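Standup notes
- DV: blocked on the single-chain target, sequence here:
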Amino acid sequence: MIELEGVPELIDPVMVAAFEGWNDAGDAASAAVAHLDREWKGEVFAALDAEDYYDFQVNRPTVWLDNGVRKITWPTTRLSVVRVGGEKPRDLVLVRGIEPSMRWRSFCNELLGFAHELGVEMVVILGALLGDTPHTRPVPVSGVTSDPDLARTMDLEETRYEGPTGIVGILQEACTHAGVPAVSLWAAVPHYVSQPPNPKATLALLNRLEDLIGLHIPLGELPEDARAWQTGVDQLAAEDSEVAEYVQTLEEARDTAELPEASGEAIAREFERYLRRREPGPGTGAAPGVATEGTDPSYLRDASPDRTRPPKPQQPGPEAVPGAETDGAGETDGTSETDEATETDGTSNTSGAETPDKEAPRPEAEPPTAEGPEGTKDAEGSEKPKDEED
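- DV (later): unblocked, structure below
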């Protein structure tokens, strides 16, 4: 039994989770949860036992000095609580960690134990995948679920994916079997510029999360970082004719796929979203999170290329990359062409352009027209994970 003595009764709590590794292209998902934790001043109240779930030869601990005293930070998953202020306060349970190396079912059961004790009403899992999407267009974000009723009521896609999966897919299915509503949000990251960070994809995930849970999320410097990131990638593309040609091909494919959405209804929907984000609402202020007694913050504290040419674009297979076709509310980066100029346009180069050796990973929870993140390398170029160990 999980006992949370130091955590007060929560108000309409939603759990938001992201995991570094295979399902986190460009570190977009984990950076989104880190942004929420930072903006709303969350404090860690629990951490899973690293010995139970991590191979320390894969995810090594780090040693650091605190006033001359050597301390160790172990790779693990941490939970924090933040209260979003406003007329209707609401609590978020933030889960940020690393995809576990072993015992995935026990890992998910432990997180669900926390969710049950805290009265979590819904779990939202963030992920990011590599795809054939141009950096010059809004980042496609797909919202998917395994719950048919939730898909209908929240205008999401019901997943039909079959194939290898990561911890995001496993946790979503565990929530479904436990009767906890769960949604996965997937951002598509350009595979030819995959090295982290990718603030434009992080911004897109936060915008989509904002629409999903009905909270105003302070974006801080993210829009400026996203513009700087895109500016840098634009400069890289301009220096190499083959890269520029490839990006243009992706743009044409994306624009052609989106033509049906260029309707008055779609434009009005995007403009309403644009205005809503600029209106003050709940979430503009927040109280600090809550930490349980007995936790040693210093012990759990987080430790602080050459460019290659992309391959010629290939014809998409039976499943296209998420975002190749937008689906109104189901696939969007949370920014319209109108607000792209003020939020997600323009970016600075944080890394060189590179091409992964294999196609992007496929998400377990993904619309049938989307190519998910399973079965390939992640943003850091790691090989496809082996079958999960219980």
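- Follow-up: Confidence is low (pLDDT under 50) at residues 281-390.
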